[in-house]
Amino acid sequence: MSNVTKPQEMIELIFSYITQISAERSAENILMMLADMGRRLVYADRCTVWMVNRKKETLWTKVAHGIDPIEIPMSAGIVGRCVRDKKHLIINNVYADPDFHGEVDRQTGYLTKNMMVIPMFNHDGNIIGAFQVINKLPKDEVFVQEDLRYIMLASTYAAETIETSLLLEEIDATQKEVVYIMGVTGESRSKETGNHVKRVAEYSRILAQAYGLSEEEVDTLTGASPMHDLGKIAIPDAVLNKPGRFNEAERKIMDTHAELGYNILKGSERTLLKAAAIVSYQHHEKWDGSGYPNSLKGEEIHIYGRITAIADVFDALGSDRVYKKAWSDEKIFNLFKEERGRHFDPKLTDLFFENLENFLAVRDELQDEFMHE
Ligand code: C2E
Ligand code: SIN
Ligand code: SIN
Ligand code: SIN
Ligand code: FE
Ligand code: FE
Questions:
Q1: Mean pLDDT over residues 103-108, rounded?
Q2: Does position 343 have pLDDT exceeding 50, yes or no?
Q3: Residue 251 C-alpha to ligand 1 middle, in angstroms?
Q4: Counting atoms of ligand 1 from 1, which one is nearest the CA of 243?
Q5: Is the pLDDT of residue 2 over 60?
Q6: Residues above pLDDT 90, as percent of the chain
Q7: For tag attachment on the chain, is the N or C end more exposed, with fewer CB atoms within 10 Å?
Q8: Spatial distance between the Cα atoms of 224 and 204, rounded to a whole number of angstroms
C-alpha cells in the first residue's frame, strides 16, 4: 500500500510541522499549516480546518493566502453535521449528499468528490472545530479506517495549538484596544495622578482575593478597575476641575460619567473591557440602593462594582482633590464603619478592615509624586 504513510514517515512529517507551527503566531496561518499537515498525512488533495464561532453559530476557515476567511452557518454542510453530531464521517460521493454545502468549492473553483470529516475537541471535551480532508489520492481512491486514525492523532495536537494561538491573539487584541482607549483617555484633563489608578487597581486586587474570586477574575478586575472613571473624559473642564464644591447642576453633570464610561466600553467583546464597562457603570452604586446611575441594591450590584466602590472611595478620601483636602485616617475609618451596609457591601467592609495593613502598604508604596508647576 503506497497511499498510506508509514509510521516513521509520519513522525517525521508531524515533527517538521510542529517545528514550523510553533514559530507562528497568527491563528489563521496556523489553521492553514495544520490543513497542509492533514492533507499530507493521509494523502489527500486538500484539507480544511474549520473552527467553531459559538457567538455567531458559524464555522469559519482560512483556505489560502489572499482569500478572506470563509464562514458558513453551523447548521450547514457535512462539516456542520459532523460538529453537531460530534461524530466523524466518511463520505464517498459528496455531491449526492443532501447536506453538502459547497461554499469552499464555489469560492475556490475546486471540485470535491469524497471527504472525511472528524470533530476536534479541546481539553474540556468541548467541540472547537473539525478537520476535513478532501479527495483521497491517488485519484479515485477513497478514505479508509487507517486514514481516520492518522488524522485523529493530528487533530488532538491541532486542537491544542489552535486554542493557544487564539488565546494569544485575544491577548494581543485586548492590549491594542486598551492602548487605544488609554490614548483617548490621555486627553483627559482630570488632575488626578497616574498613581490614583494604580492604587485603585491594587486595592481592588486585595479585596477580590480576600473575597475569594478566582485567580482569573482577580486579574480581570485588577486590570479593569483603573478604568472606572473613564467617562470623566467627557465632563466639561469647568465642572471636572472646579476648585470648590459642586452646585446641584454641576453634580448632575458629573453623575453622568458612570454611564458615559459604560457607553464607551460596552461594545467590546473582550473580557477585560467588558469588566471595565461594568466597573464604570456601577462604581457609584451603593449597597442600600441610594447610589447612581441606576439605584441598584445589594447583590444587584456586580461584585466588581462593589469592590471598586470601596477602592475608589478609600483612595479619594485619602487624597487631596481640587475640591477638598485629604482626610485623616481616623475620619476615613469612621466613614467606612458608618457606611458598612449603607454605601458599602458589609462583607467587603469587614474584609477591608481585616486587610487594612495591606491597604496601607499599597498607599505608602504608591504615593502621589510632587507635581512641579
Ligand atoms: P473622586 O474625587 O474620585 O471621589 C470618588 C468618591 O469618593 C465620591 O464619589 C464619593 O463617594 C467619595 N468622596 C470623595 N470625596 C468625598 C468627601 O469629601 N466626602 C464624602 N462623604 N465622600 C467623598 P462621588 O461623590 O459620586 O463623586 C464622583 C466624582 O465627582 C469625584 O471623584 C470627583 O471627581 C467629582 N466630585 C464630586 N464632588 C465634587 C465637588 O464638590 N467638586 C468637584 N470639583 N468635584 C467633585
Ligand atoms: C492545502 O491544500 O493543503 C491548503 C488548504 C486548502 O487549500 O484547502
Ligand atoms: C463547504 O465547503 O461549504 C463545507 C463543505 C461541507 O461540508 O458541506
Ligand atoms: C463628594 O464629596 O463627592 C460628595 C459627598 C460629600 O460632599 O460629602
Ligand atoms: Fe467615579
Ligand atoms: Fe476615581
A1: 92
A2: yes
A3: 10
A4: 44
A5: no
A6: 55
A7: C
A8: 10
The grid coordinates of residue 70 equal 470563509
Name the residue type at position 170. Answer: E
Which DSSP state fits 61? E
Which residue CA neighbors atom 3 of ligand 2 most closely?
A: 36
Q: How many CB atoms lie within 10 A of CB 125?
A: 7
Burial zone of 256 (CB within 10 Å; 0-12 exposed, 13-18 middle, 19+ buried): middle
Q: Which of 299, 313, 354 lies closest to 229, judged by CA?
A: 313
Q: Are 25 and 165 in contact (CB under 8 A)?
A: yes
Task: Determine the pLDDT at residue 372.
Answer: 42
CA dihedral (153, 159, 162, 164) in degrees, to 10, reads: -110
Indicate the length of the chain as a whole number: 373
Residue with cell 479515485: 140
Count other C-beta atoms under 10 Å from residue 237's C-beta.
Answer: 9
CA distance 367 to 161: 44
Q: Are 51 and 80 in contact (CB under 8 A)?
A: no
Q: Residue 365 — pLDDT band, cuts 50, 70, 90?
A: very high
Q: Which atom of ligand 1 is nearest to the CA of 292?
A: 26
| CA dihedral sign, ordered 169, 174, 177, 180 | negative
What angle separates helix 303-317 from helix 329-339, to the nearest 10 degrees? 150
Cell (9 digits) for 243: 476648585
Among candidates 12, 15, 91, 5, which has minimal Cα distance to 42? Answer: 5
Q: Distance from the CA of 128 to the center of ligand 6, in angstroms?
A: 41
Per-residue DSSP letter, 103: H
pLDDT digits (tens, 9 = 90+) for 293-317: 999 999 999 999 999 999 999 999 9
